[in-house]
Amino acid sequence: MEPSEKIDNEKIDNKIDNEKIDNNVNFVRVPLGTYDAFHSMTCNVLNATICSLSLKGKVLFMPEKCEPNDYKRYTYLGSLDGLSVIRYYLLVIFSFTGLSTLLGMTKTKRSEESLVVGFACNEITPAVLQHLGIESENGLVIRRFEYDFGLPMLKVKMFHVLDKATDKLHLVEIYERRNFLLQLYFGLAMLIIWWNDFHVVSVATDEGSGSLR
Fold first, then answer.
1. Do 137 and 147 form a contact (C-beta atoms < 8 A)?
2. Do 38 and 144 contact (CB within 8 A), yes or no?
3. How many angstroms separate the CA atoms of 141 and 20, rounded?
4. How sure is the predictor about 33, in pLDDT bands with cuts at 50, 70 and 90?
5. What are the DSSP calls for 141-200, one per residue?
6. Which of 155, 124, 162 is nearest to 40 (CA)?
7. Hey, which bits of the chain come out as E strands?
8. pLDDT tens per residue, range 109-154
9. CA distances for 30 relative to 10, 15, 16, 50, angstroms
10. Taking 60 as the threshold, does the pLDDT of residue 194 lie above it?
11. What is the spatial distance between Cα 141 and Cα 28, in angstroms, rounded to a whole number?
Protein backbone atom coordinates (compact mmCIF):
# COMPACT_ATOMS: atom_id res chain seq x y z
CA MET A 1 0.00 0.00 0.00
CA GLU A 2 1.35 3.42 -0.95
CA PRO A 3 1.64 5.90 1.95
CA SER A 4 -0.73 8.28 0.18
CA GLU A 5 -3.44 5.64 -0.21
CA LYS A 6 -6.32 6.25 2.19
CA ILE A 7 -8.77 3.80 3.69
CA ASP A 8 -12.38 4.29 2.64
CA ASN A 9 -14.15 3.58 5.93
CA GLU A 10 -17.57 4.01 4.34
CA LYS A 11 -16.94 1.16 1.92
CA ILE A 12 -15.55 -0.93 4.73
CA ASP A 13 -18.62 -0.27 6.87
CA ASN A 14 -20.89 -1.32 4.01
CA LYS A 15 -19.26 -4.75 4.05
CA ILE A 16 -20.19 -5.32 7.65
CA ASP A 17 -23.45 -3.41 8.05
CA ASN A 18 -26.53 -5.26 9.22
CA GLU A 19 -24.25 -7.49 11.31
CA LYS A 20 -24.76 -7.67 15.05
CA ILE A 21 -21.72 -7.28 17.25
CA ASP A 22 -21.39 -9.18 20.50
CA ASN A 23 -18.56 -10.53 22.59
CA ASN A 24 -18.17 -13.58 20.37
CA VAL A 25 -17.90 -11.75 17.06
CA ASN A 26 -17.45 -15.07 15.36
CA PHE A 27 -19.46 -14.40 12.22
CA VAL A 28 -17.99 -11.21 10.75
CA ARG A 29 -15.22 -11.35 8.17
CA VAL A 30 -13.15 -8.28 8.94
CA PRO A 31 -11.67 -6.67 5.79
CA LEU A 32 -7.94 -6.02 5.67
CA GLY A 33 -8.64 -2.31 5.29
CA THR A 34 -10.47 -2.25 8.62
CA TYR A 35 -7.46 -3.69 10.41
CA ASP A 36 -5.21 -1.27 8.53
CA ALA A 37 -7.22 1.68 9.84
CA PHE A 38 -7.20 0.10 13.31
CA HIS A 39 -3.44 -0.34 13.43
CA SER A 40 -2.66 3.02 11.83
CA MET A 41 -4.72 4.50 14.68
CA THR A 42 -7.44 6.20 12.62
CA CYS A 43 -10.24 3.68 13.07
CA ASN A 44 -13.84 4.72 13.75
CA VAL A 45 -15.66 3.44 16.82
CA LEU A 46 -17.60 0.68 15.05
CA ASN A 47 -14.55 -0.82 13.39
CA ALA A 48 -12.39 -0.36 16.49
CA THR A 49 -14.95 -2.41 18.41
CA ILE A 50 -14.96 -5.14 15.78
CA CYS A 51 -11.17 -5.34 15.63
CA SER A 52 -10.68 -5.38 19.39
CA LEU A 53 -13.30 -8.09 19.85
CA SER A 54 -11.68 -10.24 17.17
CA LEU A 55 -8.42 -10.53 19.13
CA LYS A 56 -9.37 -13.31 21.52
CA GLY A 57 -5.87 -14.64 22.06
CA LYS A 58 -2.90 -12.99 23.72
CA VAL A 59 -1.44 -9.61 22.82
CA LEU A 60 2.35 -9.38 22.91
CA PHE A 61 3.38 -5.71 22.70
CA MET A 62 7.15 -5.58 23.03
CA PRO A 63 10.25 -3.62 22.03
CA GLU A 64 12.56 -5.03 19.41
CA LYS A 65 15.37 -7.27 20.63
CA CYS A 66 13.20 -8.39 23.53
CA GLU A 67 14.46 -11.57 25.14
CA PRO A 68 12.04 -14.51 25.55
CA ASN A 69 12.43 -14.34 29.32
CA ASP A 70 10.91 -10.85 29.18
CA TYR A 71 7.86 -11.70 27.05
CA LYS A 72 5.67 -12.04 30.13
CA ARG A 73 6.26 -8.40 31.00
CA TYR A 74 4.72 -7.31 27.71
CA THR A 75 1.76 -9.68 27.55
CA TYR A 76 -1.91 -9.30 28.33
CA LEU A 77 -5.10 -10.92 27.13
CA GLY A 78 -6.95 -9.52 24.15
CA SER A 79 -10.65 -8.69 23.98
CA LEU A 80 -11.31 -10.80 27.07
CA ASP A 81 -9.16 -8.60 29.28
CA GLY A 82 -8.49 -4.96 28.71
CA LEU A 83 -8.31 -4.39 24.95
CA SER A 84 -11.30 -2.08 25.03
CA VAL A 85 -12.24 0.69 22.64
CA ILE A 86 -11.64 3.23 25.42
CA ARG A 87 -8.06 2.07 25.89
CA TYR A 88 -7.61 1.99 22.13
CA TYR A 89 -8.45 5.67 21.86
CA LEU A 90 -6.27 6.49 24.85
CA LEU A 91 -3.42 4.91 22.90
CA VAL A 92 -4.42 6.88 19.80
CA ILE A 93 -4.26 10.16 21.74
CA PHE A 94 -1.38 9.76 24.17
CA SER A 95 1.00 7.91 21.88
CA PHE A 96 0.56 10.63 19.18
CA THR A 97 0.23 7.86 16.60
CA GLY A 98 -3.29 8.89 15.62
CA LEU A 99 -2.24 12.52 15.22
CA SER A 100 0.76 11.40 13.20
CA THR A 101 -1.50 9.59 10.73
CA LEU A 102 -4.02 12.44 10.54
CA LEU A 103 -1.22 14.90 9.76
CA GLY A 104 0.09 12.66 6.99
CA MET A 105 3.28 11.88 8.91
CA THR A 106 2.72 8.11 9.03
CA LYS A 107 4.13 5.84 6.33
CA THR A 108 2.39 2.54 5.73
CA LYS A 109 5.16 0.20 4.68
CA ARG A 110 3.18 -3.02 4.73
CA SER A 111 -0.44 -4.14 4.98
CA GLU A 112 -0.87 -7.69 3.72
CA GLU A 113 -3.13 -10.67 4.19
CA SER A 114 -2.79 -14.38 3.44
CA LEU A 115 -5.51 -16.38 5.17
CA VAL A 116 -4.66 -19.81 3.76
CA VAL A 117 -0.91 -20.02 3.16
CA GLY A 118 0.21 -17.37 5.65
CA PHE A 119 3.53 -15.52 5.78
CA ALA A 120 6.98 -16.63 6.83
CA CYS A 121 8.13 -14.00 9.33
CA ASN A 122 11.47 -14.09 11.09
CA GLU A 123 10.01 -12.09 13.97
CA ILE A 124 7.53 -14.85 14.86
CA THR A 125 10.04 -17.26 16.29
CA PRO A 126 9.37 -20.65 17.92
CA ALA A 127 9.87 -18.88 21.26
CA VAL A 128 7.10 -16.39 20.42
CA LEU A 129 4.73 -19.18 19.38
CA GLN A 130 5.51 -21.10 22.54
CA HIS A 131 4.78 -18.03 24.64
CA LEU A 132 1.46 -17.55 22.87
CA GLY A 133 0.62 -21.18 23.61
CA ILE A 134 0.65 -22.23 19.96
CA GLU A 135 2.16 -25.46 18.68
CA SER A 136 4.62 -24.77 15.87
CA GLU A 137 2.60 -26.70 13.31
CA ASN A 138 -0.57 -24.78 14.21
CA GLY A 139 0.82 -21.23 14.06
CA LEU A 140 -0.03 -19.20 10.97
CA VAL A 141 0.73 -15.51 10.38
CA ILE A 142 -2.31 -14.46 8.37
CA ARG A 143 -1.74 -10.68 8.36
CA ARG A 144 1.25 -8.41 8.77
CA PHE A 145 1.50 -4.65 9.02
CA GLU A 146 4.34 -2.16 9.31
CA TYR A 147 4.11 1.56 10.06
CA ASP A 148 6.54 4.40 10.56
CA PHE A 149 4.80 6.96 12.78
CA GLY A 150 6.75 10.13 12.05
CA LEU A 151 5.46 12.34 14.86
CA PRO A 152 6.40 10.11 17.83
CA MET A 153 9.36 8.72 15.84
CA LEU A 154 8.03 5.21 16.32
CA LYS A 155 8.31 2.21 14.02
CA VAL A 156 5.92 -0.68 14.60
CA LYS A 157 5.55 -4.12 13.05
CA MET A 158 2.31 -5.98 13.74
CA PHE A 159 1.42 -9.61 13.12
CA HIS A 160 -1.90 -11.45 13.34
CA VAL A 161 -1.03 -14.98 14.41
CA LEU A 162 -3.75 -17.60 14.10
CA ASP A 163 -3.77 -20.73 16.22
CA LYS A 164 -5.33 -23.22 13.82
CA ALA A 165 -6.00 -25.64 16.67
CA THR A 166 -8.20 -23.23 18.64
CA ASP A 167 -9.13 -20.72 15.91
CA LYS A 168 -8.00 -17.89 18.16
CA LEU A 169 -6.34 -14.80 16.79
CA HIS A 170 -3.28 -13.42 18.61
CA LEU A 171 -1.56 -10.08 18.05
CA VAL A 172 2.19 -9.50 18.18
CA GLU A 173 3.49 -5.92 17.99
CA ILE A 174 7.19 -5.07 17.88
CA TYR A 175 8.15 -1.43 18.19
CA GLU A 176 11.31 0.62 17.74
CA ARG A 177 11.71 4.08 19.29
CA ARG A 178 14.35 6.46 17.96
CA ASN A 179 14.51 9.27 20.52
CA PHE A 180 15.36 8.96 24.22
CA LEU A 181 12.91 11.60 25.51
CA LEU A 182 10.14 10.19 23.36
CA GLN A 183 11.05 6.72 24.61
CA LEU A 184 10.57 7.96 28.17
CA TYR A 185 7.26 9.64 27.37
CA PHE A 186 5.99 6.64 25.42
CA GLY A 187 6.91 4.29 28.25
CA LEU A 188 5.11 6.43 30.82
CA ALA A 189 2.04 6.74 28.62
CA MET A 190 1.86 2.97 28.15
CA LEU A 191 2.36 2.42 31.87
CA ILE A 192 -0.56 4.70 32.75
CA ILE A 193 -2.92 3.29 30.11
CA TRP A 194 -2.15 -0.38 30.76
CA TRP A 195 -1.31 -0.20 34.48
CA ASN A 196 -3.61 -3.07 35.44
CA ASP A 197 -3.40 -5.06 32.24
CA PHE A 198 0.27 -5.86 31.56
CA HIS A 199 0.64 -9.09 33.45
CA VAL A 200 1.63 -12.70 33.17
CA VAL A 201 -0.94 -14.75 31.30
CA SER A 202 -0.71 -18.21 32.80
CA VAL A 203 -4.12 -19.67 32.02
CA ALA A 204 -5.40 -20.17 28.49
CA THR A 205 -8.88 -18.78 27.86
CA ASP A 206 -11.55 -20.80 26.12
CA GLU A 207 -14.25 -18.20 25.65
CA GLY A 208 -15.55 -19.33 22.28
CA SER A 209 -13.71 -20.22 19.12
CA GLY A 210 -13.27 -16.65 17.90
CA SER A 211 -13.53 -17.46 14.20
CA LEU A 212 -13.50 -13.79 13.30
CA ARG A 213 -10.14 -13.22 11.68
1. no
2. no
3. 27
4. very high
5. EEEEEEEEETTTTEEEEEEEEEETTTTEEEEEEEEEE--HHHHHHHHHHHHHHTTTT---
6. 155
7. 58-63, 75-77, 106-113, 139-149, 154-163, 168-177
8. 999 999 989 999 999 999 999 999 999 999 999 999 999 999 888 8
9. 14, 9, 8, 8
10. no
11. 19
